[in-house]
Amino acid sequence: MALTDYIPKLTDGSLDLEGVDLSPLSDLTRDEIEELALAWKEIDPKRRRNIVTTLSEKARDSVQFDFNSIFLMSLRDSDEDVRFLSIYGLAEYEDRPGFAPLSDILLGDESPRVRAAAAEALARYAHLAAEGKLLSRNSQRLHEAFLEVLGNDLVDEQVRQKALEGVAYYNDADIRALIQNFYTTGSIKMRRSAVVAMGRNGDPIWLETIAGELSNVREEMRIQGAVALGELGEEDGVPYLIATLKDDDSSEVQLAIIQALGKIGGSLAKLALKKVHESGDEVLKEASEEALHQFEFDNNPLGPAV
Predict the structure, then answer these.
(1) What is the DSSP letter of 304?
(2) Alpha carbon distances (Å) from 27 to 48, 59, 63, 98
(3) Cβ atoms 213, 195 nearer than 8 A
(4) What is the pTM of this model?
(5) CA–CA separation, 235 vs 214, rounded Å?
(6) C-alpha 261 chain-centroid distance
(7) Interior CA angle at 38 toward 86 and 92, to 5°?
(8) Is there a contact between 226 and 263 (Cβ–Cβ < 8 Å)?
């Protein structure tokens, strides 16, 4: 069915979306997106939200569908919820067309939660920059955008949190000093984001600081400490994780530690995971099994020799 004939099904609010096949919206051409954009503004905001949500769910359920062009189009929607949902529709999107609109949203959107979502999405581009996979001018622009947000105390805290977590991939002395400053002087929420940033920053200097969070009275900080050690990837962090795994009664903390051990790897981590698999409850046993599979895959992604 041609898009021209299909669009009335989207614009007709009397039609239940559950009865509308949305698969024709996959892999639209540029001309088709331009045609849809003209009709899009005539669709009721609530229905636009439902369309974006349904497309996101459909894309997650099957890799054969690609609705990214629609999510990119609706980043400029007049409705805050549509913009927010569109960003999360682009959950794993790292291609160049997403960079500019997400950067514009980070710096200029009127909604703090939409700006925070954009900052979270842009962290993927920062990771690419750290790996040398982002154009240098875009890398510089992103670096400056994150710092602009962090340097403005009037910006909503949730936006600054995500900006700190994103800029952490730029591992230089100024960024490390910034992370340390927010960890030392920031609110509880900013301190948590600073721990996230330490893990992403990847510098071994953070090991002791992150490990110290494993004994924090706040469960969320212990969880984040475990996650950050996994991100950091230093085998010297394994003994801290094992000790906490034995002593911490929180199942959420234990699960985070198991996942971290799987990410870090090494003989000591593997031994600890095997012990959990042999003696833990069913939830921990399943988690340790997944971590061991991840460990084996990381060490031999092509599988055993035949």
Answers:
(1) S
(2) 18, 11, 12, 16
(3) yes
(4) 0.92
(5) 16
(6) 20
(7) 20
(8) no
**By CB neighbour count within 10 A (0-12 exposed, 13-18 middle, 19+ buried), where does 50 fall?**
middle
Looking at the domain assignment, is residue 225 inside a domain?
yes
CA distance 284 to 276: 7
Q: Is residue 226 part of a domain?
A: yes
**202 — alpha (psi -120 to 50), left (phi > 0) or beta?**
left
Q: How many CB atoms lie within 10 A of CB 217?
A: 6
Number of neighbours of residue 300 by Cβ within 10 angstroms: 10
* Residue 36 belongs to a domain: no
Maximum Cα–Cα distance across the chain:
63
pLDDT in tens, 15-28: 888 888 888 999 99
What does the pLDDT look like over 133-150, one tens digit per residue? 999 999 999 999 999 999
Residues across the chain = 306
**62, two tokens:** 């099957």
Number of domains composing the chain: 1
Domain that holds residue 226: 210-299
Collapsing DSSP to helix, strand or coil, 43 comes out as: coil
Contact (Cβ atoms closer than 8 angstroms) between residue 126 and residue 166: yes
Would you give the distance in Å from CA 75 to the centre of its chain? 17
Phi first, then psi, for residue 290 (nearest 5°) are -65, -40
> What CATH number is attached to the domain comprising 232?
1.25.10.10
**What's the CA gap between 191 and 165, in Å, rounded?**
11
